[in-house]
Records
---
Amino acid sequence: MLRHFPPVEGPYVHRKRDYFIAAFTFFCVAVCLMTDADATLEKQNALGVCGWVFLTGLLLGENKEVRTQVIIAIIFATIGEHFASPFMGGYTYRFENVPAYVPPGHGMVYLTAVALGRSGLFLRYARKIALFVVLVCGAWSAWGISGYAEQGDYVGALLFCVFLIYLFKGRSPMVYLSAFFITTWLELIGTAVGTWTWAAIDPVLNLPQGNPPSGVAAWYCLVDAVAMGGAAPLLRVLKNVKLRIKSDKSRDNAYQGAGNE
């Protein structure tokens, strides 16, 4: 079950950049969501502009593969947001829209999961962090179906089981572990201040769900998995297209040279 976890002992390096990305995103998430709690639509759009600026700055120090992963994560998550919120009504934002800061926000959240997942702290203490996450999220899920919670959360318990599959069977457990922290942070703040509200009954499964569901990190793990799995094939396609264009251009130049002779 732990075959994809890093070795217990290893020459793990603490890069300040990784911790800066995480700290900056945690801070921005809190400020953004609390600001949006009573913001106008215009201010919401301004937060979106800030999000794109911040994300662009953070990506300047990343390689091509990570940048591609972030782009895929943004596209996939934004499509998912429009489907799950305005269309299905699984959760609803204040203006019943998808706020302008959500797409770049997903990019920053994904980048934070990657940064923390590769950090020396998470690599060195991977098993202890995994135990902590499983116990905390497990207790949260158990409370949701215990009958004592004000709002039942059977969807959260199901998502927790999905999260465990990602964590112990997926090839990138460190990213999924990191995703739990940043996504739990943003979900607790966003729902607490009323930036969005999860439906009491999930429209697809027709089961009670919490606000937020306890295993909500599983949805973000899906975004992470799609981003990591899709980056390499996309880069290969782009490389082949570039080589094809270059080859066609060289052949055209050769034909033109022969014609001039």
---
Amino acid sequence: MKRHQYDHDMDIHEVLLSYSDALAFLEQLEADSDIKKYCNGFNQSGRWFFQIYTSEFVEELAAIINTSMESRGNPGPVLEVMCGDGRLTEFLQPLIQRDIIATDAKDGRYNIPYPKWVESLEALVSIDKYSPSFIVLSWEPYLSTAGIDIVQRGIPTAWIGNPEMCGHQDLFQIPHLPAKSGYVLSRHDLFGKREFKTDIYLFNCNLERETKSQ
């Protein structure tokens, strides 16, 4: 069977693709080109990719967030910290029952084209400012301890990433539960071999309720 031909420069986050379409593109890119180069801004939008979001992944994460907010009754917004270009917030907003605020320290570590609506704030400062009902954190920098400080605030948090490639190992000494998502895709995966290295890790959640909601 002839495989579908994708433009190797296409922006995989220009629109929200299905998991099967995103995986097919990434498999082809892995076979024909340089995944790391593509993820480091060498694509049509100059976008940096760490986690690749799909419609199924976003729907799964939105269900976790909505269930948590319903069970807690906290009126605060959802807060995405260290959000990069804020694309995950854009994908989540139509599925979330209240506003999502996106913040990033914009420290120059990566050459990310930040939209103006992404507020320039460090994670802990933004938590103090907005008193969120739920926090989303995707691909915290490697060996950063900010994630530990964040979850110690006691606010329900979804930490997304590869524990071996981002964040600090001590974070996982704090009680948590992996969502065991079937829709995780990241820059460090081996797509042809179906070796996926990331997940959604839940902290300060009613763990049984949040995971059973999916």
---
Amino acid sequence: MENKWAIILGCSTGHGAAIAKQLATEGYGIIGFHLDRGSIKKDAARLQEEIASLNSNRVKFWNENAADKEVMFSKMEEIKTILDNGKVKLLMHSIAFGSTTNFFNPTPVRQRQMDMTQHVMAHCLIYWTQALLENNLLTSGSRILGLTSEGSYKAMEGYGPVGVAKASLEAVVRQIGWELGSQGITANTIQAGITPTRALTKISTDWENWVERTKERNPMKRVTTPEDVAGLVSLLLNDKADFVNCSTIFCDGGEHRSL
């Protein structure tokens, strides 16, 4: 078996979990970070067990803050040991954690909320990429992917800080791909459509109506699923996608083209 690995930041539920399972079935080792408590922590443990059954136990999860640089750098030696001379084929940013509020009313966003959201949902990908490069864990053919949304260019209730972070993530990924493309390392964002995940329920109490309205306006008359996104990630890891770089790729059934 080829010694290929994926590092997934935000792996316990939703898109991250689906990507982890999909790649495990394709022979990838999975290193995952999540930050969960209570029942979700148990869900993450069950997911790790499922992945272990799919890829001969080539899996390691940490329930720690992947956006914390101290956590990041403290894990590098252990990651190298786990990889056992393998390389990171995929660095996937799937962290969905930020302040869901408006800039002004009813509760004005605070600077610390903006700073935290930007760092967790965008800037930390820079430092992860730096750390993997410094430790010689990325190579030609490696992919760096992030998940964006319509909120990167549309304004919506309660999405201000996250929308700014998504726009920032797209800029971060473009720059990574521009700087590392000559090394054969590519970086892209995936724009999924409205997906009924745990993260969506945190954005708005009106999320069920969002889902129903999305079904009406989506040309394919359904919402996006985490498995749709996982399938696209799998395609992008193929060598035939080596020239796809610095781009935003839509995985939404055409939703972004509809009013």
---
Amino acid sequence: MTAWLAIIAPAWIAGSILGLLSAPLGCLVLWRRMAFFADALAHGTLLGVALAVWWQLPMGIGIALVSVMVVVGLVLIDDERLPVDAVLAVVAVSLLCLGLLTLTQLTDQQANVLGFLFGNLLELDWADLPILAASVLVGLGFLTYIWPAQVKLATHEALARIQGINPMRQRLFFMGVLAGFCAIALQAVGSLLISGLLVLPALTARLYSAAPNQMVIIALIVAQLGVTLGVWGSIWLDIQTGLAIVLVLAILFFVALIVSKLLAKSWSAAN
């Protein structure tokens, strides 16, 4: 048991730390209707990793470069004739293909492709936790700083403009936090599953929330539950840890959805 804990405990703690940032950030993603953008940025992390390996740069720099490219590219291809969600879907799949192509053809990382796609949380050890914790604390600190403006823009943009809030600046701030989260979440769940880690806890919390703060608290609880069950379940079922975490979060969402519908029907019948 002690040997198992030496492997599982760092992964469990790392996932729990990551959940502290993913829950409030996921709530903002839903409120600002940017789930497709988050998905595109998450897929872009794979290309960022591939370019970093190819050019022998730190992975963070590669991911930052791709994030900037995505934002600039979206501004350049913006066209009122094209639905935004469709454009983001095309960008996401293009980034994924480019990332896979670069990673497998131009680098020596073919053997690690599955890890980049689905994460490998169990490879983290105790030495990695301080860096992860510091990164999450920085993200939480910046998110706390921009939180009031972000909530105002999400609920009433016109009123936020009158109050002197710059939507473009706040959008860039939000994209920066999102890009940072994608960078630190890559090893946990991989580029394909980052958006699931972001959106599912917030989506589950939305079913039972009447206020923004309440939604964040419920999302935090769901994220921690998903990480805990996912990490231990991946050991029990012998599957990828990232897959297990997101699958547990998906199950929690569908169970919560069914329960909320049953409660709503019961309430309607009682009245």
